[in-house]
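Write out a record, fold above all:
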Amino acid sequence: MEGRMKFVFLCACAAILLACISVYAAGSEDGAGADEAVAYRQEMAGLIGRIKEYGVSRRGSDFFVIANGGAGLMEPNEFLPEADYGRLLQRLDGVMAESVNFGWDMEMDKAMPSEEQDNYHRLLDNARRAGVVPLVLDYAREPGNVQRAYREDRSLGYLGWVSGRRELDRLPEGLPHNDNDLPCTELKKAQNYLVLLNPEAFASREAYVQALAASNYDLLIVDAYYGDTPLNRQEVALLQHKPSGARRLVAAYMSVGEAEEYRPYWQAEWKDNPPGWLWERNEDWEGNFRVRYWQKSWQDMLMGQPDSYLDIILAAGFDGAFLDVVDVFYSFESLSNGE
């Protein structure tokens, strides 16, 4: 009896200790723990919703958001309750998935495995039926694969684009696939789009802006910056019109799941004294660090101040925001599961 009581007492002490460790790791703004108590998908869905609401409050009801890597949020489940899922659908305008046809495992022209592809089709179809525009970005150069990707996307109701370069740093030659001369004033009307996030290959800022302006895409997804300086209202206004003068949409890139050391907000002292929201290096992308995106100090960098990332985007007059690395929640979930 005495031995059993000692065992129970030790178990209780161990449970209390583990609970304290868990609360500290999850709740400390400056902690670098495993964040076990955080509802990662709910937090990401909530952040997307706040970004949308903030943009609408500053720019108007036509401001839109696209979640790159957000396909995993396109169904309610144990990680994302029905109520949170419903609120997300009311605020999200588009969701992008990469390499659904080609470009799997970071390899050009490599087809996605059928089981993975079926899962993406199910999630993207959920988005489509809910009124969220499903965008697919594939990576292929073989002409047969390029045409197959466009054909598959069109048949499934996706807005597709096939890039011949992983770097997303060039304008493709010729007219866009499914070229459209009509104005495009809302995401649901887009017939084609372009993603160009790395303007370093252009000879100058002016050459970069002029090349984009001369293209005929319905939707341009570009970086908010050229070098260390954001695009200004005049430059964005120029991009918002096709060569014919017809209106089109222009969205600015903004990473919500990673911090980037090549951005103006990055501080050199973070290397030795990182803020609490900075988590770990992304070994696949140089200079990128995953963040604890639910922490207020990170979200304050994203919006709410004149020099916050989203506020800079809004001040330049962009039509929407392209939210990248939304799927960072998978990394935290894997960590919690001990994977």
In short: The first strand starts at residue 64 and ends at 68. The first helix runs from residue 2 to 27. The mean pLDDT is 90.
